[in-house]
Amino acid sequence: MTELTKILLDETEMPTQWYNIVADLPEPPPPPLHPGTHEPATGADFSAIFPEALIAQEMSQERYIDIPGEVLDVYRLWRPSPLFRAHRLEKLLDTPAKIYYKYEGVSPAGSHKPNTAVPQVWYNAQEGITKLTTETGAGQWGSSLAFACAQFGLESEIWQVAASYRAKPHRRTMMEIWGGKVHPSPSEVTEFGRSLLAQDPDHPGSLGIAISEAVSEAIEDPKTRYALGSVLNHVLLHQTIIGEEALLQLAKVGDVPDVLVGCTGGGSNFGGLAFPFLREKLKGNMNPVIRCVEPTACPTLTKGQYRYDFGDTAGLTPLMKMHTLGASFIPEPIHAGGLRYHGMAPLVSHVYNLGLVEAIAIPQTECFAGALQFARSEGIVPAPEPTHAIAAAIREALLCKETGEEKTILTALCGHGHLDLASYDKYMSGEMVDLDLSDDVIAAAMKGVPVIG
Ligand SMILES: *Cc1c(COP(=O)(O)O)cnc(C)c1O
User: Fold this and answer.
1) Using 50, 70 and 90 to split pLDDT, how confident is the model at 338?
2) Per CATH, which fold does 6-14+67-110+234-446 belong to?
3) By CB neighbour count within 10 A (0-12 exposed, 13-18 middle, 19+ buried), where does 4 fall?
């Protein structure tokens, strides 16, 4: 067996299809519902927001969907991405476990998000759309969409959560470099934004509010559509290129995972890595434990309820059955901005509910402690979000040290942290604290969740 450190595929080995887990699940996922009638939503309910091709993917039962040639051409700027064997971290931990990480920080935006931004923009362009709107928290998704719009000559207009807009000016600069027009949210541009600013001129904003603003702008103009960076079925579909590549890469070294861990904000990098492995598990080809890792400050799977809820704060989106903390929930400003969403992808929620995957929550100081061990051994500075995946991989590797088991652990390092160094400063200066979320706060936000049926 080869002891490679960096397991590469060449461009000709890159997968040319995305994988749709819906085709292989023992039960179909519950459908989205129309927000007014509570009847199953139809394609038409989405058509003011999304292009037809993406609505079709959202509802598709097809097992494999071809990746368009022009999308593959852009993917080749950074794909196939490397799979690393973490020899140096293993040595530091003195573990008999093997740790592999699929590194998505090699994309232009520095995360996995361009994997879906590029096809989303391409499908919109095919239908004559000239502008896309979106929201962004820490700026990862906004910058990915702005990059993809630049590739295909579309305009992008982005509502960035006000607290991040003020705290993370460099992400805004990236969006503007790629031609994006950026507003702090809540903004003066939309009626909803103006109403919130009237109550509080220093409103910190939230992802749910920013989604409401971006959606309301898209609805008003027939040449504009909205793009979402996580949560939806078509987004997870596009991210499966991560897991399809990782399967081929592990096959090159003759390994299969015993444990797969991934961080979950909206669920897209997790689903992207895990679903191709879940397919193999359902087929009986391997039997990995598959585990979601979330922050204790936003414990959507471990403390939320599995219910129909809105994706946004104003209630403009269809209702989705998902694990939720309530659409009005505003999480504490933890450093992993990308994990601060009240809901979880309906597909991840569904497989969790079916018992096909597990979930744990980890506090942020443990995550940053793990990230320093990782950076000092493997070299790469992780984004705050995948520090959760790294901390979970370290927990598992240390367990193997106790039991002597030589497990193979796989995770996704879904982004680098070069624009999140302030978070590392907070941790290293001892100022970072773990925020405990009280059950009362969750109960209050859950009161606003609609009662269906
Ligand atoms: C956005 C983001 C996340 C969270 O989104 P998922 O859909 O859960 O993947 C995690 N990591 C990074 C680096 C991100 O940019």
Assistant:
1) confident
2) Rossmann fold (3.40.50)
3) middle
- Whether the pTM exceeds 0.90: the reply is yes
Shortest-distance atom of ligand 1 to CA 339: 4
Rounded Cα distance, 135 and 36, in Å: 24
Q: Which two tokens stand for residue 111?
A: 């995360």
Cα–Cα distance for residue pair 162/445, rounded to 1 Å: 21
Q: Ligand 1 centroid to 338 CA: how many Å?
A: 5
- Give me ligand 1 centre to Cα 66, in Å: 24
Identify which of 207, 211, 414, 416 to mutate to test ligand 1's pocket (most ligand atoms within 8 A of the CB): 414
Atom of ligand 1 nearest to the CA of 105: 13
Give residues (CB < 6 A) around ligand 1.
111, 113, 140-141, 230, 263-270, 338-339, 383, 385-386, 414-415
What is the spatial distance between Cα 341 and Cα 147, in angstroms, rounded to a whole number? Answer: 23
What atom of ligand 1 comes closest to residue 415's alpha carbon? 13
Domain ranges of the chain: 6-14+67-110+234-446
Q: How many C-beta neighbours within 10 Å does residue 395 have?
A: 18
- pLDDT of 389 strictly over 90: yes
Q: Which amino acid is at 105?
A: G
CB proximity list for 141: less than 8 A, separation 6 or greater? 113, 117, 134, 135, 229, 230, 338
Query: Ligand 1, residues 236, 239, 269: which to mutate, most atoms within 8 A of Cβ?
Result: 269
Specify the pLDDT at position 2: 55
Q: E strands within 314-405? A: 319-324, 358-362
Side-chain half-sphere CA neighbours of 352 within 13 A: 27
Q: Which of 400, 101, 141, 377 is nearest to 262 (CA)?
A: 101
Which ligand 1 atom sits closest to the C-alpha of 268? 7
Instruction: Give the separation between CA 349 and CA 288, rounded to whole angstroms.
Output: 19
The residue whose CA is least distant from atom 14 of ligand 1 is: 338
| pLDDT classification of 316: cutoffs 50, 70, 90 | confident
What Cα–Cα distance (Å) separates residue 87 from each residue in 6, 9, 369, 386, 409? 10, 20, 19, 19, 12
Give the residue, out of 136, 228, 268, with the most ligand 1 atoms within 8 A of its beta carbon, to mutate for a pocket test.
268
Residue 89 has which token pair? 């971290």
The pLDDT of 243-256, averaged and rounded, is 98
Give CA–CA dist 375/360, Å, rounded.
Answer: 23
CA of 265 to the centre of ligand 1 (A): 6
Whole-number pLDDT of residue 313: 81
- Residue 16, token pair as written in the block: 């040319």
CA dist., res. 8 & res. 84, Å (int): 9
Question: How many whole angstroms from 306 Cα to the centroid of ligand 1?
Answer: 21
